[in-house]
Structure prediction request, 353 residues.
Amino acid sequence: MKRIILTGGGTAGHVTPNIALLPRLKELHYDVHYIGSYNGIEKELIDQFAIPYHGIATGKLRRYFSVQNFTDPFRVLKGMNEAKKLVKLLKPDVIFSKGGFVSVPVVLAGKRCRVPVIIHESDMTPGLANKLSMSAAKKICCNFPETLDYLPAGKAILTGSPIRQELLSGDPYKARDFLGFTSDKPVILIVGGSLGAASVNSAVRKVLPELLNSYQVIHLCGRGKLDSSLNSTPGYAQFEYIKDELKDFFALTDIVISRAGANAICELLALHKPNLLIPLSANASRGDQILNARSFERQGFSMVLEEESVTDQSLLNAVNSLYENREQYIRAMKASSQQSSIDTIIELIESFT
Prediction:
């Protein structure tokens, strides 16, 4: 039986693409193992799939001062030793890494043990963890055409991001019944990311009365970010987090307002959902969401409204324009070449086993 190690963690975005590959890997009779941190979000997400999970010590390489900068190097060294022992013990045929700092020791251990390594970069410009891993990789998958310019020639391949296939099988009628919505108004889905987005939540709630004149609104606002004063508002449904019903919500939705995390927007591309992206400000990040959003805008998949430009009127204008022109965005997304990411990545994995 062929064996593969999947790795990646730190955020849900470094785990969900690995999860999307699991059904096909199991169909092909791979013995799948996962290496992540001891108690990171990846452990919580992977535990439900009944595949062996192996924890290692992990640290973070920060570009800013922190007391942890003095202790994390020791955790990284410990993780390197643990990863090397695991790779030697498991003897995988191939390693697939989705990134995050926990993946770096696993990737480097793979190179030392002469195991082929494939890594996947979600954002338009490579993050630090993947920069450290590139020299050890046989192939580097990416989401954006522009990313090819940042990757070593001969290693880079445009694949898109693996999308959970269950998202494609939603039932709009189930969603309408669940939400108590009517059939006479279009539906907007607001997604702030796995932890929600306070600024997006606030902007949407400020214009909610105007939105509800023309639309119904599903608001995924993040843990601890519900507004109880809005609980009985007709045509508005808010949730901290949703899991099983998400596919049905997508099926019912006409347009989406979202942050611009790479995996989130790749899901919107796969679902052909016209979207307004409000990327995380460069003041609060390395600017990767802005680059992601602008790439999707150039390809005709998305409208973009930067956080600093959000006003009541600009948000309402953007929403109405997006809805009125939704068919042109749908056509552009359907014409995209990035519709078979799982097949492309699985073929790549198979080429090394």
User: Anything to note?
Assistant: The first strand starts at residue 3 and ends at 7. The first helix runs from residue 16 to 27. Residues 202 and 221 are 10 Å apart (CA to CA). The mean pLDDT is 91.
